[in-house]
Write a structure and sequence with these properties.
Length: about 600
Amino acid sequence: MAKYDPVSYKRPEKVGTAVKRMLSFMKSSRAAVIISSFAALANGIIGVFGTYSYRLIINGFILNKDPEGLLRGVLMLAGVYCCGVLASLTYTQTMAKAAQAVVYTIRKELFRKMQSLPLSFFDRNSSGDLMSRFTNDLETISESLGTSYPALIQSIAALISTIVMLLVIHPLLGLVVIACQVLTSIYINYATGKSRRFYREQQQNLGKLNGFLEEITGGQKVVKVFNHEEQVYAEFSEYNSSLRNSAEKGAVYTGIMVPTVVGMSYLNYAIAAVGGGLLCIRGSMDLGSLTAFLVCVRQASMPINQITKQTTSLLSALAGAERIFHLLDVEPEIDEGTIVCEGDEKGGFVWHDTAPELVQHDVPMRGEIGFSDITFGYIPEKTILHDISFRVPVGGKAAFVGSTGAGKTTVINLVNRFYEPDSGSICYDGIDVRRIRKTDLRKNIATIVQTTHLFTGTIADNIRYGRVEASDEEIVEAAKLAHADSFIRRLPNGYDTMLRNDGDNLSQGQRQLLAIARAAVARPHVLVLDEATSSIDTRTERLIELGLDSLMEGRTVLVIAHRLSTVRNSDEIMVIEQGKIIERGDHESLIAAKGQYAKLYTGQFELD
């Protein structure tokens, strides 16, 4: 049974639409859902029919002192309950498998959708929120479909059958009992709404307290350095008091609600027992009917509670499904490119246009990059780049320097088509990159960023991520080029060493070396270094300089660096400030100009 959390419970915005979308994912499991529904329905009816059998057994065999008839009645009752067990086993097993099949399909579609979304989508949405779609939302759907849905069918069938049975046994007394159950249900709904508000307040205060504890625990050194122990304790006491007050309110209200509901149930049962007893004394009801009636009264509250809980669980699942559907409806990354990369290293690579209506000659791939009047902003209200133009010839090396937020990394994002410029054009070998298929464009641009991400797997697997068809010999060659081979061979398992948790068993410098090796094995025509050596100490930086020089040989290179010593040998250095190129030239000419670059290089002006 899906656990009801009064704090996290949310209703879907459009229940009907969410149900229709869910049904579309259940097409392949339609037969299982139908079988499960009928089995749950049968189970609910069988349980009430078994209770009604008490009347027949007591009146027909016990009161008449018929042992053989009693044995037959007991065997019949056992058969009825065996059918109920079989029906219960059928719907639980069948629906559990169907639920997993549905969740499998949704998870697959969700991951495929995530892979097709533009990078701007991930900038706008936190990774934690996106992960909750794969974890919390899908888990809620799985539990609700596998457990709550058949339990709801079974409970509705049991409730309707119980009501019918009460009215059949004695209509007047049945109406009295039903009226008491209705009043109890009204109170439960009212009390649940009130307790939900108290528990929501408690969870909010608990979240604040946990966040404060996590922050202070991680910053203990700073707290002690600045003697903030007393102030921190005072803040903790305030958070702790708020949590205590809200927790007390919730506990007190829940403590009142439970005995009240139990007392109302006992009162209802007492009314039925006293009323039924008086009817038996008067001869208006027989003993068997009274026994069956009282058992039905005891059972009546159970399906009501189950219906409330399972409905809440299903609505929570639909709310989670609606969040997933919103993600599935996001527009994917548009790729209108028709030009692809063809050829091999021996014969050379060319850009080939696959559009059938165009007849063009193939363009040799060389690696020339050009920006022409590029203007761009991540949001319309704020422009990051203003009329940026430059050209990096084949085998050339261009560097971008400037303060944080000046727009350097944005240039790199536009080259890879992670974003599209608002105006202007970007060309690769004279071809507008919007005409090149994104996978082929990015395959020929290797980017080494400041934050290295390593995947779970061996070191060889992580290097091979740059080109999945690379041989073991090519991996070793790339590692040697990046000067990573020596430290890899010193590891216990060498290239077969397993990396987990983003390679936390390696130093930051070693992780960066693996990123350089991964770029080397990709054999790109264009190489992008975005603060590639910022996390490497000076000794390691000197160690990989020769490797980077070998890697950059014959390739077009774009470099972003805060360490200006790494850009001295660039063919052209561009200083970007507030989205504009304010200076450009080689190192010597910029130093001689005594402008912004000279101030940066000599330390008269510090980068942010």
